[in-house]
Amino acid sequence: MNVLNKKSVEDIDVRGKKVLIRCDFNVKMENGVITSDKRIVASLPTIKYLLDNGAKVIACSHLGRPKGEFKPEFSLAPVAVRLGELLGIEVKMAKDVIGESAQTLAADLKEGEVLLLENVRFHKEETKNDPEFSKALASLAEIYVNDAFGSAHRAHCSTTGVADYLPAVGGYLIRKELEYIGGALENPQRPLVAILGGAKVSDKIGVITNLMEKVDTLIVGGGMAYTFFAAKGYSVGTSICEEDKIDMAREMMAAAEAKGVKFLIPVDNRLGKEYAEDTDVMVVDSDAIPDDWMGLDIGPKTEALFADAIKGAGTVIWNGPMGVSEWKNFASGTIAVATAIAESGSISIVGGGDSAAAVQKLGFADKMSHISTGGGASLEFLEGKDLPGVVALNDK
Ligand code: ADP
Ligand code: MG
Question: Quick one: 204 and 162 in the same domain?
Answer without folding.
Answer: no
